[in-house]
Amino acid sequence: QVHLVESGGGLVQAGGSLRLSCAASGSIFGINVMGWYRQTPGKQRELVATITSSDSTNYADSVKGRFTISRDNAKNTVALQMNSLKPEDTAVYYCRLVDLREYWGQGTQVTVSS
Fold this sequence. Notes:
Layout: E1 2-7, E2 10-13, E3 18-26, E4 33-39, E5 46-52, E6 57-59, E7 67-72, E8 77-82, E9 91-98, E10 102-104, E11 108-113
Parallel strand pairs: 2-11
Antiparallel strand pairs: 1-3, 3-8, 4-5, 4-9, 5-6, 7-8, 9-10, 9-11
C-alpha cells in the first residue's frame, strides 16, 4: 500500500507564491508518474502538472510559465512551486501517484484572494 501526504497549502494574495509538497511512502514501483490535480466545488478534478520518474513534465495550459513541478526520486517526494497565483487557482490540490496502481493524497486547500 502507498500513502501520500500533502503539505504547503494555505491562503495567499493574488500575485503571491506557494509551494506544495507531497511525500509518498510504502512499496512504490520505480517507474511511475507523480502529479498534482485540483478540484473546485461542482467541477471535475483537473490536471495541473505531472512528472515521470525520468523527469518528463506536463502542465495544464492555465499554469504554464507560473507553476513548476519537481521530484526527488530518492525521497519519493514531489513538489509544486506556484508563482503569480491568481484567484482562479483557488482549489483543493491533490497529489497523485501512478505506478502499477493509482494513489491519491487527501488534498490541501489553496486559496488565492484578489
